């Protein structure tokens, strides 16, 4: 058996602790699978003495994780600190430059700097791996980059953020509205330190940008991911979705075509018959379409100590096995630069929810505006009035172009009878 | 870029032709991903001149595929002939002994001789790969052996045979009985040359034995897989399943515990709420459970030119990338020998369907026999009589031990009023 692979771990939060637990508990099994032992030599975190439920005294301690890059006895650095810049980025650059492989769970880092870091890894003949950055316990990066490598892939979509999926599932299950579920989710500790990452679709956007790169061999382009979160979803939208045969899911969708690359994260109405409609709570799921495999579907826990640490350790085992190919599965100079397709060019149907004062002529004004933009309706629902005399109107359009809907809603929002900004949810017949 | 990986293909049926199509069509993309070109140098099949829709004149022809093992200009041999022995096995042995990597879609070969072949591959420092042998387009071998390598896995179960899944789906969808759907499926060409492989669960058994080995690091033990097919499933069972909240699926289930290894293939009643209940027609699905990932679920097309060839080419790309580790992901001498658990020790509930003459005392006899074996019922259904005066009785037991049900049904089958052998379907609350 070869000599041990020596690793240092930067960050001892949930995931870092999980990595240590797995390596300690499955020592022999991992050595058998990797062909060599995995040995933790050093750890680093912001607070040395915090009780983490594990004994870290057996490992060298570093106050500054950047020291790992300089250590001769470290072959691989694990980064589970987080953040797209700062220490995480410096540690990645310096570790790779010093010829150490680098394994991270940091989606923001890879979405923003993946290309640059992959180039450094390539130039130094070491591995950059980030399975844990996307969809937790689902080995989706490996499945796409290796398992489906014979295919020209055309579409990747999925539920990429467990927290918002939990919130949407709970709204439907409990009949509570957004605000109440948000408070409960906060108390459970499920939200990122900056809740905007979850609630505004940014976390899912990071993951989608990474998936696009891996699936299509295109340069990571997070800047062109359209992102819209779940903050405006009300319980009544979830109820109307049910009535219309849909469920509301926050999806990331990426498609490559002759026209370019479409990358978007937003709430979707998906048919209840679609497998992805039944992925609930903290689970993530990814659908991958390619020319020879047709459609494949992957589901698993999206976050948490076990699933995320499992993905980090799988990457470490891969590196121990000597798999140190390109981070995005093709060399950087072959990664393509594909023009983005703007969300305004989307063709599809829309669910539209209006909140208006109940007055004669409101519906006439609304429908006239839609007609002027060439948007036709297949469904219009109105069910009684609210206590304050206002009324919710729900409409489903026929297939149309997003820019027409946007133009119509802009005019509708200007009507004096409209109380809230109209909400449009894209219908995706996946 | 390194020199090309030169391959020879034995077998030009659907899959062999698919492999050639992919390599020809995605030449540049594959070279980018593999880091080197993949070059087909020779092909072999039983009939040289058959029209296959592709031009094979560019490749050397061999009347005898075994010649590939001797060729100095072949790095890797692809075997898509089929059969557990004969040419397929000889070609595997000789190719590996001659230092050539070997990629196969042949589940019978690996289920029967995987351990022996893995040892030869190991001794010669080459790769033995068989992603295409299980679940077609789903990269399940790689996902388990690499993606989930950090976990102690405890269970793998799935729909592993697309043909029988198609038949069960069609019975429910069309309301036609088994015999009629069997004829239609034959006409569509979906059945193996020996239909018993599909209908009696043998094909799924081969695949399950392979999955067990990969997931648990246990020696492949196909001999101890319990197999029962779908031949006795009637439309009325499918209809009763629906009424009871279940769907009938032919599952392979493998579990590793302190007591040993349980491997079985048989029709199951699965709750309609389980994701696997909604995997229809030619799709396969696999659920993998482990200590850190919890549960992961994979779905995709189980067979056909595209998905199977995609898996073969993914293996070839892996070998081209230099990934030539152990076939079962741990070295052969570390593969464990685990005692089998007999199906008679299964604990669970059972759906039981009887066909009896409608006479006073029949139900009393049946229920007395069950009581004597300590099998208690949670449901009993009887709906009118058949035209011939016979009647179907459907029962669902409480949780019990399989051997008690077997003993009771043996006695019940001996009753003079019983027309057909009783059918028991295991209920799996997955």
From TrEMBL, chains A, B:
The active site is at residue 207. Pfam families: ACT, Homoserine_dh, NAD_binding_3. One of its GO terms (biological process) is methionine biosynthetic process. Keywords: Amino-acid biosynthesis, Methionine biosynthesis, NADP, Oxidoreductase, Threonine biosynthesis. InterPro entries: ACT-like_dom_sf, ACT_dom, Asp/hSer_DH_NAD-bd, HDH, HDH_cat, NAD(P)-bd_dom_sf. L-homoserine binds at residue 192. NADPH binds at residue 107. Pathway: Amino-acid biosynthesis; L-methionine biosynthesis via de novo pathway; L-homoserine from L-aspartate: step 3/3; Amino-acid biosynthesis; L-threonine biosynthesis; L-threonine from L-aspartate: step 3/5. GO terms for molecular function: homoserine dehydrogenase activity; NADP binding. Residues 351-426 form the ACT domain. Its EC number is 1.1.1.3. Belongs to the homoserine dehydrogenase family. PANTHER family: HOMOSERINE DEHYDROGENASE (PTHR43331:SF1). This is Homoserine dehydrogenase. It comes from Paremcibacter congregatus.
